[in-house]
Each structure stands twice: as C-alpha cells, then as structure tokens.
Design goal:
The complex is a heterodimer. By secondary structure, chain A is an alpha+beta fold. Chain A is about 45% helix and about 15% strand. Chain A has seven helices and eleven strands. A five-stranded antiparallel β-sheet of chain A has the order 4-3-8-2-9, with helices on one face. Chain A has a three-stranded antiparallel β-sheet with strand order 5-6-7, with helices on one face. Chain A starts with a helix and ends in a 9-residue tail after the last strand. Chain B has helices at about 1-30, 40-75, 80-95, 115-125, 170-180, 185-190; strands spanning about 100-110, 130-135, 140, 145, 155, 160, 165-170, 195-210, 220-224. In chain B, the strands form two sheets. In chain B, strands 3-2-7-1-8 form a five-stranded antiparallel β-sheet, covered by helices on one side. In chain B, strands 4-5-6 form a three-stranded antiparallel β-sheet. Chain B starts with a helix and ends with a strand. The chains are: A alpha+beta, B alpha+beta. Strand 1 (about 105-110) of chain A pairs antiparallel with strand 9 (about 220-225) of chain B.
Amino acid sequence: MSMATRVRSIAGWQITLGVALLALGFLIAAQLRSEAPRVSYASNERVPLVETAQGLQTQQDALKQRLLDLRAEIEGAESQGKGSAAAVQALDDRLRQARVEAGLTALEGPGVVLQLRDSTNTVPPGDNPTDYLVSARDIRTVVEELWLAGAEAVAVNGERVTSATAIIDIGGSVLLNAAYLSPPYQLSAIGPSDLFDQVNGSASFRDFIRTRIEAFGLQVGFAEPKDVLIPAYAGTINLRYARPVTPAPSEGP
Amino acid sequence: MRKRNSQLTIAAVTLLLGLLVVVQLRSQSIGTGLEALSAQDLTVLVANLNTRNDQLRAEIATTERELADLQGAHSRGESSVDQLRLDLARVRAWTGLDAVTGTGIRVSVDGMIAGAGVQDLLNELHNAGAEALVVADVRVVPGTVVAGPAGGLSVENTALPNGFEVTAIGNPATLTGSLTRAGGIVAQLAATYPEVQITVVPVDVVEIPATSRDLLPAHGTPKL
C-alpha cells in the first residue's frame, strides 16, 4: 500500500478523534497541574470559605453585568421618549449628563496606566513581610496623586473610583467598592496630556517612590496608551439616609 | 455499524473535552490571591461580598421596576417626567451635585494632622457606609483630596485650619462604631498623631452642601 493510499484510507473521523484525544490529554495535564497547589490546604478549614468567596465573586460579576445592562436599557427607554415633549427631552439630557458626572458611564480618552506589583525582594529577618506587599494605602496614595495631577476618572483593575469608594486591605489583596482585587494593580486614569508629568513631578509622589518603591522593592510601571478606557461604576447608588435638600429638580433650565 | 460506533466515540470524547475546558477555565479564573488569605480574612471577604451582592440585588430590583414603569408609561403614551425627575435627583444626590440632608455624625479633628491621615479617615467613613461627606465645607467627590503635611493642609485649593470638622450622612451608630472601635481609625490616628484630638458625635440632622467642583470630563468622552 502506497503512502498516499494509506493517508487517504484514514477516515475523517479518525483524524477528528485523534485531534480531540490530543486536546484531551493537554487539558487533563493542565487541570492536574492547576489542581496541584490546592492539595496543600485541602484538609484545612479554608476550603469551604475559598469556595464560598469564589461563588460570591462569580455571582457579583453576573450581578454587575445585569445592572449595567439594565442601566443601558433604561437609557435606551428614556431616549425613546425624545421628541414627545420638550420637558422629557430636557430631563433626559440632564440625566445623561449627571450619569457621566457620577461615573455611571464608561469614559474613554487620553491618560495613563500605572501598575503596582508586590516586591520580589527577600524579606530580611525582623522585617514585616506585609511592608513588601502593595497595600490599600499605597493604592490610595497613587489614586490621590492622580486626582491631584488633574485626573478626571480613575479605575483600579477595572473598578471605577467614585464619590463613595473605599479601598481597604484584606490579607495581601484589597477590597475596592467591596470588590476583591488582587495584585498586580492597574490604575488607569483619564486626564490632561501632562498627567504623567504632573504625577511624576509631584513631591509627595517622589516621597511615595522613596519610602515604598525604593525602600521595599515594590514595583511600579507606567504606560501612556493612546486611549484609556475607564469602565462605568457597576454598583449601588441607593441612598438610605441622605435625601436631597431641595425638591426634585424641575425640568426647566 | 462501524460509522455509528465512531460517531458515538467522537461524541463521548468531545463531551469530556467540553467538560474539561469548562473546569479548566473556571479554575483559572479564580483570583490567585484567595489561596493566600487567612481564614479570618476570608470570613471578612465573604461578609463583604455578601453585603455588596445584596446591595446589587436591591439595586437591580429597583432598576427593573424603573424600567418596567418607564416602558409602561411609554406603552400608555404617558410622559415619563416623574420617573426621570426621581432618577435625576437620586443620581445627583449620590454624586454630590446636590446638597443632601439626613442623620449622621460629626467628627472634630483638632491638631496638626497630615493629609494622608484625613484621607484615611474619609476612606474609613466610606467603608462604614457614609453616603455623603464634607470636610470643612468642601463636599467629597471624585477628585477631592485633602493633601499636605501636618500644619499645611489644603482641600480643593483652600487652606484647612488645624481644627476642622468632617461631617458624614449615614447610620450614626454604624459610623461611630466603625471609627471608634478598638484598633479602628481613631485609635490608629491617635497613635500616629498623639497630639491630635478626634471626637465623634452622632447628629440627628446634618446638611451637606453640593460640590463646587466641575465633574464633567474635559478630556474623556462618554462611551455609551
């Protein structure tokens, strides 16, 4: 049997099966490898907690997406009212603007992206190991520097910093808007063309570089992409205790 | 018969393949940091995630109701002015574009404190659920930073004296408890700035002004 005949005699399904089995082999290997580190704590109390946290995080992602979709639908429904009455149109325009001001709309524009990473230095005996990790205070410092330099929108790992945002430590990671973020942290900001220079030239930022980056080996990186995208805030804006002092604004200018 | 068998084999293998792809993707999407957290941190994380998810569910329910009302009004040929007005008031109040009133607390800070200390206090107030904050008479909105060394504080280009107040709207008991608990922010600030006096007083009604800051982006464009 010639080589060509032999190749032709291999049915299509055999090739498909061959490819599928090969992929299967790779996946089993990858799965086993990724399972390996978890064996180390398989017997301790954290397993159910880790699983619960993962489940809640997945739920949160779905809930955030649902909220963003609903807000987009509302905006769509509101603009359908356009032309029906001048009052509706004026209110709709004001609402659209307020949402942009609130951070409920994604923003795109020139800016910078800063990345903060934990130190890879060996912690000397007697030193506090947490000093070698990026803390919530570090992230807040850089966010504050970005604001002071003229940033008009900031997000950390895709979570928008809003009027109500808290950034707190949890282990070696942080919670921002009560969303769990782990390093490396990418701080994206939209602002004037000299945003990067303003941050870099600030005395307090140089202090931060000296006392945190240089002293403990935390890593900082900069990029100035052509366009920075800051996602919309996907969280609650419900007020339970605060109410407007003035009655609801009128539709007039 | 042979063809049927081969089809069954391929079906079985691709099914297994699909399952493995899903399992693999799921296990890779898990945050790498979770494994490093202690049981105590994980408990705090779970509590935080639960709270945020409950808030999101409530917000989704409200938004679904709003959408239904809006669509109902449209289908009946009615104007949606009332709905829009409510929504506008809510967004503007939350953002800091309008003055708000409600129960809350007043935090008096007396002494030389650095900007970072005041920012830590504001962060803790946000974390405790403050819905609106004002430092002296400057409403805290995105971009508001209390900066400067102790004795040389400024906020939004206005100098801040060594004695000033931070006012917050929210649940007075929760806010007070969160600030003054053992090891809380007041204790931490007292350790860092021993000469600074911080007092927290619950207040029945406080009023917080609107921001004077322009929050409309000048460089970015909204992406709808």
